Amino acid sequence: MPWLSFVAFKLNWLAAFFWGADAELLMLLGIVALIALQSYRFGYAVLLPCALLAGLGIAADWLLVWLELLSFKQPGLPLFMALLWVSFALLLPSLLALGRTLLLLVVGIMGPVSYYLANLAEVLSLQPSSELTAVLLLPLWTGLACLALYLLEPRHA
Question: Where are the transmembrane segments (predicted)?
Answer without folding.
Answer: 12-37, 44-65, 77-95, 102-120, 132-152
